[in-house]
């Protein structure tokens, strides 16, 4: 089966959104509500093990004050904080505070030109996805994606495979015809759990995580003056990750009945 769709994670994969985007937005929301809560860069890195902003806040609150976090008003406060946090995050992105990772715009453009379908599978809130795509690629960009799976659309967030199952169903496609792009171990577990081959481009918070299940593990997508490096399905690789390279890897897979054979 040939490659027909690319499915992208958002946070950490399309852009480094966490440290200077989401984290800052959480802290601003905490301050707005008069709370003395604050997440440092290093603590936030640990908290990323909990995917989903509401889930992350509740997890942290339970560690700090289990009784208050179990109180009747806790879910409503978490929801209100999260709404405020989303407003701060989308404002940061709209102001141009976050750029795409190198090579992302190139690969998306090549996929569009070749008629390879695009989709999103992310844990983050839908408004954040729209803000990032429009803020970096232009007002039309959300429409380039045949399907945007985001936030609470499935109750079980990554590492559960549910968001990828949802996206594949919406696309009406077999996992074998798609590739996932992820930056984290939780994301890889989710994509792999849905039977997807996954290209990992680890980032500032995810470098060093366990990625042995990845189809390819690179330090980025690469640019002309800074090629990417890592492991491809054909062995050690360095260069610019473009659509032709992915198609070559995919054909090698088909020829050797490799990673996707279990789905045939
Ligand atoms: C991203 C997340 C999200 C963001 C915050 O993980 O876990 O929770 O950190 O977004 P992934 P929200 O890249 O694996 O999708 O506050 O909107 O949840
Ligand atoms: Mg991610």
Structure, explained:
The structure is a single chain. The protein contains ten helices and eight strands. Helix 3 packs across helix 5 (74-94). The N and C termini lie close together (9 Å). By secondary structure, the protein is of the alpha/beta class. It is globular, with a radius of gyration of 19 Å. The chain has helices spanning 18-32, 41-47, 53-64, 66-69, 74-94, 104-114, 126-137, 162-171, 185-193, 243-255, and strands at 5-8, 117-121, 147-149, 178-182, 197-201, 216-218, 228-232, 235-239. Strand 2 (117-121), helix 7 (126-137) and strand 3 form a beta-alpha-beta unit. The mean pLDDT is 95. An eight-stranded mixed sheet has the order 3-2-1-4-5-6-7-8. Helices cover 43% and strands 13% of the residues. The structure holds xylulose-1,5-bisphosphate and magnesium ion. The site of magnesium ion has 7 residues, from loops.
Question: Shape, please?
Answer: globular
Strands across the major sheet, in which order?
Answer: 3-2-1-4-5-6-7-8
Ligand set: xylulose-1,5-bisphosphate, magnesium ion
Bin the strand percentage.
Answer: 5-15%
Question: Average pLDDT across residues?
Answer: 95
Give the helices and strands as they follow along the chain. EHHHHHHEHEHEHEEEEH
The number of helical runs is 10
- Gyration radius, rounded: 19 Å
- Strand count: 8
First-last Cα distance: 9 Å
Largest sheet: 8 strands, mixed
Poorly predicted runs are none
Proportion of residues in helical segments? 40-55%
Give the class from helix and strand content and strand pairing.
alpha/beta
């Amino acid at each position: 089966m040939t490659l027909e769709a690319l499915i992208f994670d958002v946070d950490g994969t399309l852009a480094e959104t966490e440290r200077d985007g989401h984290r800052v937005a959480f802290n601003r929301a905490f301050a707005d509500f008069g709370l003395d809560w604050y997440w440092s860069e290093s603590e936030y890195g640990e908290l990323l093990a909990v995917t989903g902003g509401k889930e992350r806040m509740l997890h942290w609150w339970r560690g700090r004050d289990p009784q208050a976090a179990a109180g009747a008003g806790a879910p409503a406060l978490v929801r209100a904080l999260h709404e405020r946090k989303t407003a701060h995050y989308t404002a940061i992105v709209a102001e141009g505070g976050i750029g795409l990772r190198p090579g992302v715009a190139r690969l998306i453009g090549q996929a569009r030109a070749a008629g390879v379908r695009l989709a999103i599978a992310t844990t983050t809130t839908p408004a954040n996805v729209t803000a990032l795509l429009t803020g970096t690629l232009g007002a039309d960009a959300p429409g380039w994606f045949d399907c945007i799976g985001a936030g609470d659309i499935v109750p079980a967030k990554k590492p559960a495979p549910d968001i990828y199952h949802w996206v594949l169903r919406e696309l009406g496609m077999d996992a074998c015809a798609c590739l996932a792009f992820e930056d984290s171990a939780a994301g890889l577990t989710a994509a792999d759990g849905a039977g997807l081959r996954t290209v990992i481009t680890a980032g500032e918070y995810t470098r060093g995580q366990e990625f042995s299940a990845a189809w390819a593990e690179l330090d980025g997508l690469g640019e002309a003056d800074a090629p990417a490096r890592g492991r491809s399905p054909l062995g050690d690789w360095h260069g610019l990750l473009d659509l032709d390279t992915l198609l070559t890897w995919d054909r090698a897979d088909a020829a050797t009945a490799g990673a996707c054979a279990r789905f045939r």
